[in-house]
Specification:
eight-stranded mixed sheet, 11 helices, alpha/beta, five-stranded parallel sheet, 21% strand, Spore Coat Polysaccharide Biosynthesis Protein SpsA, Chain A, 337 residues, 2 domains, Rossmann fold, Glyco_trans_2-like
């Protein structure tokens, strides 16, 4: 057993300079951690580097070796299987963490046990100023709670080792009551991973992964909601909670609302609930034709988008065919059955 707070798993295949930089920043900025380095048949210079670091860290390190490059996801799973700490982190060997990168993640996890997958602020990546639920984690750097891992295990090695594998992991987490959250932290820098293999093989793997994902979880839908004047921010918050439930099943929601209500929603933290729930303020002084064009532009960007009136009994202003909010809720409920 180990008394480490977190086990950090780092799959490695060559790239000794990047690997050294990654491990040095991790060792310097991740107190209370044990480092599980999974060497996937690296060449001698990388192999020697890992051995030297493991020797210097003593019981703070575990070095595992394979004779060949088994791939990032299988290596990550091997590291997970050897972990014992309350939290598990997965970090690519090209990632550079910053001081205090981990503390906000563990603090958030302690206050929100449903947050089974946690991401730091990543560069490159989207702005990260408030906690936000995401559709997937990132292999650049992510933290997984022990309880989530106990429930669902590791990643599906039959998928693409990228976005669809990560989306699948989040959906499996959702099915057990856990969510994926990005938390404001000092920035963690990473490089976009170079894809190995022929383009045709990568395309076939991605197509297979998409088909498998949709077979398991279905295909999400796209909606545009209109919120009329007079709706209070408390009621808006209740409605957005329903949309977050739908977003966890891959639905996308764009919410058109009065500018004053949007401002109140921003102040209440309702604009960062989920990456697939987007609030769009209607122009204050625009005439109805301009607002209609805004709706049509949003709908044209996502073919098949369904209009929804956010308040039952009030017609959707720019389409004769639309759902009431109650009908939308029934659709969301059906996805959970």
């Amino acid at each position: 057993m180990t008394d480490a707070t977190i086990d950090v798993i780092i799959p490695v295949w060559n790239r000794p300079d990047e690997t050294r930089n990654c491990l040095v920043t991790l060792i310097n900025h991740t107190p209370g951690a044990r480092f599980i380095m999974v060497d996937c048949g690296s060449e001698r210079d990388t192999e020697r580097l890992l051995q030297e670091l493991a020797d210097s860290l003593d019981d703070r390190a575990l070095l595992m070796r394979d004779d060949s490059n088994i791939g990032f996801v299988p290596a990550a799973n091997r590291g997970f299987e050897s972990s014992e700490a309350p939290y598990l982190a997965l970090v690519r060997n090209t990632t550079l963490v910053s001081p205090k990168w981990l503390e906000p993640l563990l603090a958030y996890a302690g206050e929100h046990p449903e947050a089974g997958i946690l991401l730091p602020c990543l560069d490159p990546g989207e702005e990260c100023s408030a906690p936000k639920e995401l559709e997937r984690g990132s292999f650049a750097a992510m933290v997984v709670s022990r309880e989530l891992y106990r429930r669902i295990g590791g990643f599906d090695e039959g998928m693409d080792g990228g976005a669809w594998c990560l989306k699948d992991y989040t959906r499996r987490a959702n099915a057990h009551g856990f969510i994926t959250v990005q938390v404001p932290t000092p920035v963690v820098h990473h490089q976009e991973e170079v894809q190995l293999g022929s383009e045709q093989r990568r395309r076939e793997t991605q197509q297979r992964s998409i088909a498998l994902f949709r077979e398991r979880w279905g295909v999400g839908a796209s909606y545009v909601l209109h919120v009329p004047k007079g709706v209070e921010v408390e009621l808006l918050g209740e409605k957005l909670e329903w949309l977050v439930k739908g977003a966890r099943h891959d639905d996308r929601y764009t919410v058109l609302l009065p500018a004053s209500l949007n401002q109140a929603a921003q102040q209440a933290g309702l604009a960062t609930l989920h990456e697939h729930v987007t609030l769009v303020p209607l122009p204050r002084l625009a005439w109805d034709g301009m607002k209609k064009r805004l709706f049509e532009k949003i709908a044209s960007e996502k073919p098949g988008t369904t209009p929804v009136t956010a308040v039952d009994g009030i017609p959707f202003p720019w389409s004769d065919r639309y759902l009431s909010f109650s009908e939308l809720c029934e659709r969301i409920k059906a996805r959970y059955q």
